[in-house]
Amino acid sequence: MKDVDYEYTGLIATYWDFLRGDTTQWPSRPYFLKIIQESGEPALDVACGTGRLLLDYLEQGIDIDGVDISPEMIALCREKVAEAGFETALYVQSMEEMAIPRRYQTIIVPSSSFLQITDRAKALMALARFREHLLPGGTLCMSLRILTADPADEEFQIISQKVRPEDGALVRRWWRCTYDMPNRLQHTEDRYEIIVDDQVVHTEFHSRSPALTWFPASEAIQMLAEAGFVDVAVYSDFTEEPATDEDHSYTIVGKK
C-alpha cells in the first residue's frame, strides 16, 4: 500500500465499519451528546470518520458538521448521511490546518483521535485551530488515553475478521505494534487479507511510524491552557469523576 500522510485509507477505510462491530453501547455516545446538549449547537465532530457519532446525533436532531483528514472516510460518511436522508457539511482537512467557514458552540474530538498528532508543536497548532473555530464561550471536549507497552503486541495477531455477506469471502485484519516509551510513541503495522476458499486472494499492508502518542492528564491540561482555553478540567473514563495522571482513559474539557 502506498504511504500516505493519514491512516484511514485503502482497505482500512473500506472495511472500517464492517470489522468494527456494534458500537451502540460505547459510553462515548451518550457522553459527547450530553456535552453538546449542555454547551449548545452547532457542533463539530473532529475526526468524524464514517460518522459513528455524527449520524447518531443527526438522527436526534443535532446541528452537527464533520471533518476528517481521510477523503475515503469522508466519502463513506457522505454516503451514509445521504442514505439516512440528512444533509450536513463534511470537510476533508487535518486538525492542525483546519479552516472551516462556520464557527461552533461545541467541538468534540472522540476516539482519542487527537493522539494521532505525534508532534507536540502540531498538536498545539490543532488546539489553536479548535479554539479559533469556537464561538465565544464555546466548549472543546476530547477523549484521550494512555498507552502501555505489551510485548505480545510485537507479533502479528488477528484482531478482527468477518465473512463478507455478498460473496462469503473472509475479511481478516492482522495487527502489531512497537513502542518507544521514552518518547511516548506507538508504531503500528496492519495487514488486511481477503480469503476465498481458504486462499488469500488479496493482501494490503499499512504501516504508521509513529502512529500515536499520549500524555498524562496534567500535560493535556497544560497544553489546552497554552492554546488559550480556560476552565479546563479532566474527567475519568466518560464519567463526572475528576481524572488524575493515574487514569488510562480520560476526557478533557475546555472553554474559549
Describe, in short, the structure shown.
The protein has 7 helices and 11 strands.
Structural features, described:
The strands form 2 sheets. The protein has a 7-stranded mixed β-sheet with strand order 3-2-1-4-5-11-10, with helices on both faces. The chain has a 4-stranded antiparallel β-sheet with strand order 6-7-8-9. Strand 4 (104-109), helix 6 (120-132) and strand 5 form a beta-alpha-beta unit. Helix content is 26%, strand content 35%. The chain is globular, with a radius of gyration of 18 Å. The longest helix has 13 residues, at 71-83. By secondary structure, the chain is α/β, with parallel strands linked by helices. It folds into 2 domains: 10-146 and 214-255, Rossmann fold, CATH 3.40.50; 151-212. The model has no long low-confidence stretch (mean pLDDT 96). It is built from 7 helices and 11 strands.
What's the layout of helices and strands?
Elements: H1 10-14, H2 16-20, H3 28-39, E1 43-46, H4 52-59, E2 64-68, H5 71-83, E3 90-92, E4 104-109, H6 120-132, E5 134-145, E6 157-163, E7 170-180, E8 185-196, E9 199-213, H7 217-226, E10 230-236, E11 249-255
Parallel strand pairs: 1-2, 1-4, 2-3, 4-5
Antiparallel strand pairs: 5-11, 6-7, 7-8, 8-9, 10-11
Strand content: 25-35%
* Count of alpha and pi helical runs: 7
Tally of individual domains: 2
Radius of gyration: 18 Å
Order of helices and strands: HHHEHEHEEHEEEEEHEE
Given the C-alpha coordinates, what overall shape results?
globular
The tally of strands reads 11
